[in-house]
Amino acid sequence: MRDRLCLLLAVIVIVFGAGPGTLHAQDGGTSRADVFVGVDPDTGEPTVYFVDALSGLSTVVAAPFGVGFTLVEDYVIYQKEPTGAVMRARADGILEPHPFIRRGADTASVTWIASPDRRAIAWVMVSTSGTSAVYVARADGSELSQLPITTPAPPLTLAPVALTNDLGRLVYDGAHAPEAGSPFVVYDHLVAYDIPAAAFTDLPQEPNCPCGAAFSADGRIFARLEAPDGRGPFALHVWNLPTNADFLIPAPDLAYRLAGDLIVNATGTLAAYGMATQVEAEAGALEEQYALALVDTVAQQQYAVVSPGPARYRPLAFIDGDSALLLAGVSDGGTYKLSLATGELQPVSDKLYLGSVTAP
User: Fold this and answer.
1) What is the DSSP string of 204-234?
2) pLDDT score, position 25
3) How far apart are alpha carbons 46 and 69 in whole angstroms?
4) How many Cβ atoms from other residues are within 10 Å of residue 202's Cβ?
């Protein structure tokens, strides 16, 4: 196990270089650990790995039946199937029920998002009667509060979309359709809620199509895929919210009818999203084909950067000075790096990279 993880770490450092994933000593002798989730080859169970570069050792936390893994501060939150119990895998190796996000007897679903710095979390609990409730808190549970957001009529629910680092603003979908008929998460009516001011803020051109959306880490840039009835090809509309400036990147000449997994860089000059369409396979059966689109807002162009195929890749972040994309392999659970200059798709790990934490 240790040798396998050391080899994994060596590959990560080679691929990432000085970008995300590189581990280094911190003040006071502390170090950072890269966090992955994957399937243990011996048990076949989902497993969380906290890999420390300085020692070459790792903390391994088995997470049987785990889904929906998200890194929040120094722990990984996930749900356990089929009960839906919300669990926490800590960097010190302890696995425990999450201390403040807990399902009740009448809870039908729980969805959450972390802030970009992973120090805060927002979540929506939907009851068996279809009522949605929205909560926010720091990662340690401090400043926990339920927000006064009106639940939509079932079967629509509320859904968290983006939370700022300072617990200043939550963006949510006020009319989320859980069964949207798409492999991607899409949003119908985005609303911003100013948490300190307890005030709602309108976002431009909302409600919109059932399409993907994304915000920059500082919350200033708002990007929205747009297509009639949510069927592409998709234009990309980008707003600078503080200045109200906006621009529209026309839809590409690509025969993809579904899209999502949108991300945008810090300045709004680049965006990336996944695309899907159905093609006829053998014996007339329909098969899903996926591709990846890159949007250059300066050049006012968008184009496919991953050849279409059955494998789906989800953009995670722009890295290496926006010269590459970090991708999650949805089909195989791995992590990849795509060079935007050459188009080379390079495997990073056979496990999904979640981020880095301060090692205990």
Assistant:
1) TT-S--SB-EEE-TTS-EEEEEE-GGG-SS-
2) 34
3) 10
4) 9
